[in-house]
Amino acid sequence: MSDLLHVFIGESRENLESASLLLEKLHSDGYSQDAIDNVFRDLHTIKGSSDLFDIKPLTSLAHAAEDLLDSLRDGSTPLNESLCDLLLEALDQISNWFDELESGSENVEKWQPISTELAGRIRACIHADTDDADGGESEQAAQQSEASSSVSAAPTSFLALGSQTQLQCIEAALECEQPLWQVNYTPDFDCFFRGEDPLTVATNTPELIAIQVTPSKDALNDVFQCHLGIVVHSSADDTAIANHFAYYEGQYQRESIALGQLVSAFWAASEEYLVAAEQGELWQAYLDGDMQHSARLAEMVGMGEDVTPEEAAMCRIFQLICQSDTLTALLESVTHPADNDSVDVSADTPLQQNQANETPEDTGVNQARNEILSQQLIILQSMNNNADSPVFPSVKRIVTGLLGQSHTQGASTPNQLANAIEQLLNATTPVETEDAPDELVTPVVEESTAAPETTETVSETAESAPKQERQAPKTLKVNQEKIDYLMDLIGELTVAKNSLPYLAKQAEDIQEGRKLSKQIKAHFSIVNRLTEELQSAVLQIRMVPVSHVFQRYPRLVRELARKLNKKIDLVMQGEDTEFDKNLIESLSEPLIHLLRNSIDHGIEAPSDRGVAGKSETGTIVLSAMPQDDNVVIEIRDDGKGIDAEKIKMLAYQKGIIQEHQLDTLTEEESLQLIFAAGFSTSEQVSDLSGRGVGMDAVRTMVAQAGGTIEMQSKVGEGTQFKLILPQTMSVNRIMMFEVNHQMFGIGLDSVVETVKVSQRDIEMIRNNPVLMLREKIIPLHCLRTLLQLPVSDNESDEVCVLVVNNGQGDFGLIIDKFHEGIDVIQKPLEGVMAGFNHFSGTALLGDGRVLLIINLQELLSCR
Amino acid sequence: MPIVAKQKVIVLDGHCEIDAAEELEQWLVSHPKGQVNAKKLVSAHTAVLQVLIYHRPAFSVWPEAGHWQWLRQAMTNGREA
């Protein structure tokens, strides 16, 4: 993988993460302009950067998501839950592709159909009608959506289309019921030398509606250089367009044009003619709301003898508008833009006046007005300051209607009017300016894209610049491998440090060595302190808050709950608790499993909960809290709990326990049976959980991370899983001991105490040795026997007992000799040794010997 | 022969490849009022069409087959098709 791709994936993952979080927030808290803007910027960044690599399906999917966000941003598509889910699905897909890119297993050809399908679904939601909107609000939302889409600016080149072509476009858009595509194709000047034939490409565009060709120079100096600008309109879908122009990447851009934009452009060009047609009778019929009459009149006018083809097309479009409710609503929003917001624009109410005491509703009105103004500005700019243009009077009328006479009185040319609009738009608050179409405020938008955190107004930005400088997080991005390498080096240093006490001991043995030994020991304490500090500093680098893992779960819970028709609240606590990054990643899977179990088996269906006297919505609490050197992660639900008796019976049926254990097992012990291999309580295997490998796998994964798992449950009240994990897995404090002249280690966490007892104190209960220690029975195990080492020839009466706790109680291990505690970097067993589960790993001692570290759980289960 | 220059008219015929562009350009420069007969023109390379768009010669006959409305528009106002 190239360095550039590596950086791209790293950065894009951050964008994905932040976008996912914001989408979750939008999902739960509802619409927020800031959040949408930020998600848009994240997607925009991913799309932009991905274009550097040959991963077109990813780029087009990101592009589709970006387009949807853009339409959410300008309000032309209403936000709802399904849109959030769709966007999250797209983010997941992109994340999966990143995984493939990272592992080098990507197959971009296979991505294409996935991208096409998903992008198609996303695009279908852009400017979608009532279908996606929720319940009773649907109609209103759709109207708003249509109204808004109608006022967004149409591309300049589209405005220049003649009425005949506009008619074709509107007919095509009505027929295909989706936005049209405009492709702005600017062939490279040397494209002929590559065998390209741009106009043939353009004329062969699928579902072609119109082509515009413009010479881009005054004169042609070299016939073998291409100096043309080509604009193509098509009703084909995005994929077909992308495929058709696939070989011309970088030479073309495509943008969608919604029906509202088509109507808006049509009206700008045709208003004067239509208002005056048939002595104003046509327009009056329309104003009276008699659409049938208007349509008939329009048809009649269009068939007149002295009507030009252009005028006939205008009449035909107007006829179509009168016959279609959708088109009528769109035209209504163009002709009476502010009526939709119940604002009287006939009065002389300049824009700034309305801003004085602005309510949220006013902000919406102003945004709509700004967009209309922006559109008029584009039309004006396309007129080349020609005051005789037939479009100019109608534009001036719209602007006067919006701003009042005082603002447009002096403007007698398109440029003067454009200046007046520009001044007003610049004077409005930058928050609104940012929402205006890109053409107007490109520098502002670019700036915000480059610095996602910058949402302040222009004036505020200037004032708060020093403040921002202070607040800029001083974060350094470092490849994790480098930190791991540093960690390895510290491990080596720890081993080297551990050798100093050996040297001190050896120095004592030589003549006059005592002084040297003392010096070495003094030196050791300094090196020891430095190593420990270095260790903790580097460990700190690897610490990340558990929220990194937790933040994925709200969505998982929501999706699973919906799938199972359950109502579940996920409450997360202690997300700031820090954890070693490697550990956190290994935690993700077991936690998902436990959550799935809680959702699937724990929380009851709403009706059952009602019967049990609980609230319909179940609660799952996911919490993390530091406890000494460990972190305790708890998953608690208020579901139906686990019936210990049922577990016991099932375990017996599955052959996990023997018949006699049915009576002897306590409730606590029975519950632990769910961790046994091959155990599943679900009578029906579902696709969520219940495959019978779950809890066993969870326990194994937790144990591999050096942790333990505990479970408590009460029937009818709920279940609680507690994962106790070391905060960091890098440095272990080990207690050393000797058996059969060989050194072994055991995690100091599990050591309760060390005692030396007489042989006589060891008693036998049911043929098993036990030790009575302060009125407590401690079962004893001889480590020699467990490790199958030769029997001791030591005749001493004294026995060394290492009392340990494995989470289920205290046990005594009979060993030969105690040694000191030591910090080690534990290394996993490799090769043939990897199969020896009774050792959890090895460590290198200061004198070069290898220390085998005992896996207590495994060892005691072998007894 | 896809391009045949006559006294006042240049005839475009069949499929005009890129190399016809140079001849067409030279002819149009030397015959500013010359006309184009494209009756049997089926297709033409962009380079050929580009010469027509830049020089905007009058057409004595438009092609019989195909959709050339966009070219007519591009040549009349240089903007729209």
Question: Short summary of the structure?
Answer:
Chain A: Keywords: Kinase, Phosphoprotein, Transferase, Two-component regulatory system. The complex is a heterodimer of chains A (863) and B (81). Chain A is of the alpha+beta class.
Overall body shape of chain A: elongated
Oligomeric state of shown chains: heterodimer
- Count of DSSP E strands of chain B? 4
Mean pLDDT of chain B: 87
User: What's the structural domain tally of chain B?
Assistant: 1
Keywords:
heterodimer, A: alpha+beta, Four Helix Bundle (Hemerythrin (Met), subunit A), B: 81 residues, alpha/beta, 4-stranded mixed sheet, 4 strands, globular
Sequence-ordered SSE layout with sheet pairings:
The complex is a heterodimer of chains A (863) and B (81).
Chain A: H1 3-29, H2 33-50, H3 56-73, H4 81-103, H5 108-125, H6 138-151, H7 156-159, H8 163-176, E1 180-185, H9 198-203, E2 208-215, E3 228-234, H10 238-244, E4 252-257, H11 259-276, H12 281-287, H13 291-302, H14 309-323, H15 325-335, H16 351-355, H17 360-381, H18 392-403, H19 405-408, H20 414-427, H21 430-435, H22 438-450, H23 458-471, H24 480-509, H25 513-542, E5 543-545, H26 547-550, H27 553-563, E6 567-573, E7 578-580, H28 581-602, H29 606-611, E8 617-627, E9 630-637, H30 644-653, H31 661-664, H32 667-672, H33 694-704, E10 708-714, E11 718-726, E12 731-739, E13 742-747, E14 751-758, E15 762-765, E16 768-773, E17 776-782, H34 783-786, E18 798-805, E19 810-815, E20 817-825, E21 839-844, E22 850-854, H35 856-861
Chain B: E1 3-5, E2 9-16, H1 20-30, E3 35-44, H2 46-55, E4 58-61, H3 69-76
Helix pairs in contact in B: 1-2
Describe the structure.
Chain A: The modification Phosphohistidine is found at residue 44. Chain A: It is an enzyme of class 2 (transferase). The complex is a heterodimer of chains A (863) and B (81). Chain A is of the alpha+beta class and 863 residues long. Chain A has six domains: 1-126, Four Helix Bundle (Hemerythrin (Met), subunit A), CATH 1.20.120; 260-341, no CATH class; 351-442, no CATH class; 480-544; 546-726, Histidine kinase-like ATPase, C-terminal domain (Heat Shock Protein 90); 731-861, CheA-289, Domain 4 (OB fold (Dihydrolipoamide Acetyltransferase, E2P)), CATH 2.40.50. Chain A contains 35 helices and 22 strands. In chain A, strand 21 (839-844) and strand 22 form a beta hairpin. The longest helix of chain A has 30 residues, at 480-509. The two termini of chain A are 49 Å apart. The model of chain A is unreliable at 129-152, 338-362, 429-472 and 683-693 (pLDDT under 50). By secondary structure, chain B is α/β, with parallel strands linked by helices. Chain B has a single domain (3-76), classed as 2-Layer Sandwich (Transcription Regulator spoIIAA), CATH 3.30.750. Chain B contains three helices and four strands; from the N terminus they run E-E-H-E-H-E-H. Chain B has helices at 20-30, 46-55, 69-76, and strands spanning 3-5, 9-16, 35-44, 58-61. Chain B has a four-stranded mixed beta sheet, with helices on one face. Chains A and B meet through helix 9 and strand 2 of A and helix 1, helix 2 and helix 3 of B.
